[in-house]
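Issue: copy button drops trailing tokens. Both records pasted manually instead:
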Amino acid sequence: MTPKTTHYSVVIVGGGQSGLSLSHCLQQRGIDHLVIEKRTLVHSWRSQRWDSFCLVTPNWQCNLPGWSYSGSDPHGFMVKDEINAWLAGFVEQVQAPALEGVTVEKVSKAGEADCYTIDTSAGRFTADQVVVASGGYHKPVVPRMAEKLPASIVQYHSAQYRNPAQLPEGAVLVVGCGQSGAQIAEDLHLAGRKVYLATGNAPRCARFYRGKDVVDWLADMNYYDMPVTQHPLREGVRDNTNHYVTGRDGGRDIDLRRFALEGMELYGLMTGLDGDTLQFQPNLRANLDHADQIFNGINASIDKFIAANGIEAPGGSVYEPVWAPKEERTTLSLRESGITSVVWCIGFLPDFAWVEAPVFNGRGEPVHLRGVTGVEGLYFLGLPWLHTWGSGRFSGVARDAVYLAERIETVKLARSASAQSVPCVSERSREPASSSSA
């Protein structure tokens, strides 16, 4: 797309499901806008997922604005190609006014004007309001200790992992047991690879319990409607690691203890490397016990809900460990273990350095209430627990997009009625920008 103008009522930075959802809502309200995407629309689902990737939430939760899942398996789990086909239909349906392959380098206030300047690799744009919908997973986390690994060790981040054949022959060390780490470890394990897994304190949950998917029970319990302001942890829930579970082969639990029985080697938190020797904290037992405690706790809450509402359902159960470590192993020799590759699965960090506005906390995270910041006309969308559990997922972004669209429309109408706002001056000249983007 070649923009016909350089000024818009709204500029949306990011063309994933969040940015496109908001575009849909703004189009319904007749609000002119531009979506700027540095790659291609919804690219991350094509480029940052491994080959066997599938949803961990059932298909019925895929509910983007005007584009819900309509296939024949609402309680199944779409695989990568099916997800991308579904998203391609959403892109086609929205027909967003989008500029692809363009990097936003800086967002700032345009002097005394009551609008924003957006400097990009394709020139300068201005907007009355800006929505940052680039997500919160910008910088793959790889610890500095990675530099100390021998050059012969092949290293990938989870965003780069595709399949077991991508890795050289030999054992694989997977670092991290959140959703990506647990599923990648399983992928390698099922392919017959020798896997060493460095665990953390990630929680887990059951796939099915008492006759239904646990997600179905939690939906019945209105968990997914709980706003972050009512969560027991408040904003602290945003720091939580996602529970590990899988939708693979129709959905099942991921039980690291069972993997251990089948030959996977489990260790505690990895802390360093001394020569040829990897070092770990002696906390494997605690990590496994913590995951099981969360697993049983979620099931217990379902038990209480069933009892309180007189629901007929199969009987409940409590998970009993099928394996436990005989001792805490704190060292592992790379040479003796035969490890030839490492997959880092310890997450991402946000990078909003290109947004020049006083809306960030000490960790560089935006401070907001349901995506609305303390600076008028600047919003965030698509972040985990922006408002509810589903805010960063297919299930909840529609609600957030509608809310922001209504807020944007209110501000737009107020500005139109005010004679005090200073109009933007659209400039085609581009000033040097200082930061890189999203």
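Record 2 (pasted manually too):
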Amino acid sequence: MDKNEKMTDSEFPTPNSGKSIEDWLGQPIPRGDVSNVFLPVSESYAGIALKIPLQIQRGEKDGPVVFVTAALHGDELNGVGAIRELLLDETFKLKSGSLVLVPILNLLAFDRHSRYMPDRRDLNRCFPGSPGGSLASRVADNIFTELVGRCDYGIDLHTAAVRRTNYPNVRADMKDPKVAELAKTFGAEVIVDYAGAAGTLRREACLAGCPTIVLEGGEVWKVEPAIVETAVRGIKNVLRHLDMIDGDIEVPETQMIVNKTQWVRADHGGFLQYHARPGQVVEKDQPLATNSDLLGRENRLMVAPFDGVVIGMTTIPAVGPGQPVFHVGKLPKNTDADEVHESRQETESLEQRTVEDLSSNVLVIKHDDQRDMGRS
């Protein structure tokens, strides 16, 4: 796909439910305007309506409707930071189409600094939801009906789970041509080809006719500058591709479409010394971490299962048997690791900055430089 290629108006799919962006729950949303809308999704114990704040930006001309959501898991805040960058940017303006920005999708979980709903359900396993189901299922139904039902495309922003960090990567069903086009245009260096688990927002949105991708990047409870910049760049890339804003699409020189991933798990309890960092390209059997006892007498080397890229890793060096330590994506055929490394060395490379920033909170040393800790 040529990075400057754009869709024609005839290629824009129509909203999948027939709901219009021009009127939201009785509130007119005029062209060329910016409107704040509050979407009721549930009620408090006092019977007071719980409403999700969102902003709708409309261009002067017709075009696709795109949603961007964050904090579907209430503790994942990097996406919130990215959406706020767009909300507070006075120079950001659509020329066509409509953009729905939702900084906090799961307000119930966000208020508790938690991944989960108050009923302990994962909202991102409850879509498309049911109006007569559990609390999470009812919230999912309202979101799916009122938000996804009005949109043609979607971008859902996530981070790694608690005590882990992710190198920014797009998750997308690359067998769907429209989703694949969206994923490539977003411009992440790593794309994981996976349709998503049943009940996830992106999988169910795609099945309903709204091509949707996920960005995974960084940690919970943080707003990390390089991750925010990655997300904002990707959102703008998609909007430029859809001819909704002006500007050039910015993508890395190398994009890796990963079809296989594997978690490298600890066989024993111990304390970790990391030898690899998020985003690093590794060779098969390359040392990833040394797992030793508390006196450093037993060194158990954890190695890469294949030539790959480190998608994610734990940030807690204390580990128990079976716990995941490194998430490695298998390199696509004909991917040159040296070329990936060289492309990151360019001046002001976002990919290189991201690698460096994500490894700043863990101690990473080369295995060859590690002193003899008394191997037994």
